[in-house]
Amino acid sequence: MSKFNEKAFLILFVLIGLIIRYLPFFNELKESPILFYQPDNLYYVRRVMTILNDFPKVPRFDYYLNFAEAVDFPSPPFYPFFLAFVSWIISLGKANLHIVELVTSGVTAISGSLICIPVYLISKKIMSNKYALMVSFISVFMPLHYWYTNAIDGDHHALESLMALFLFNSFMDVYKENNFKDITKFVLCLLIIFLLWQGAILYAGIIVLYVFGYTLLYSRDYKTSRYLGFSIVFLRKYLLKFCIPPIQLVKDRKT
Asked: What is the pTM for the complete model shown?
């Protein structure tokens, strides 16, 4: 199968994913405020509106989460600032509530539909292109994935799942080729996913455990040992910083 046909199929899968994520909720998206099913969507819409209304000031606390004393934002900043930037660009600097709602909805649905691409990239590394396309097509319809990536029932986990699969794919490329381009893609994916959600340490942990296990089996493999060392240093110096504040926040609330 030619690369052109593969890309055509992937584009078709993405379009199908968008249709099934938007079509059932078309009427709900017409009016504002949109009745999102998940409270996280409402939370991010409010954060984005705060960012846009207070620009160029950067909001540093949330007065709704612990009214009236307020509390620092418990989640990393990338997702709400990304939504705010897209809303600002689309509206030419005049974003309102409905535009922010539609952008929040759109990023969720698009992320859910695009998941077929990293699924295909990973699958074709371990099976034929034909079966990789079949797996990619099925991924668009997976019930649980569809549930949290449809137009009015998703949140940052849609984009997070997409980036997690790109992270695993880039790690497989680094492990295979070990060139600067692949290492750069891996580091960028790792950075973005940790700026999306502090719980992304779970995904990084899977990679570290894999490299650690492989190193134990093949201790003479210098390249793998180097990856293990890089992963441990990265986790120790940077990733834990995203986990300690939320843990401390929970402890403070209990006391």
From this structure: 0.77
